[in-house]
Amino acid sequence: MKTRVLLLYTRHLLGESLEKLLRDQRDIHLLGPWVLDAQAFSRVTSQQPDLVLIAEDEAVPEQVARLTAQILEAYPNLPVIHSTLTRNVVRIYTSQELPARSADLIEAIRALTA
Question: CA 112 → CA 82, 88, 92, 106, 107, distances in Å?
């Protein structure tokens, strides 16, 4: 089964680069790419991806933060990945709920800080 990845971008060149990379993967079904605009959240709703990838150049951080929060609020099990043009890192956001046990909390803290 292919992972449905919705690609949103802030700069055309960055979107094209990631589109090429993702289309070459046999286990990924690419949805988009689309420019990050006012229709972005409705695309998440209509396309029902397994993951949202936002390729950003850090020029519109407030817009990206609002969209990410909106996605996580409406779809808590939908991971959102931010990839930036200026840094060699990706950020992964999710709001999945876990059972409230102290051992789970301590394990999550250790895993995130390792």
Answer: 17, 19, 12, 10, 9
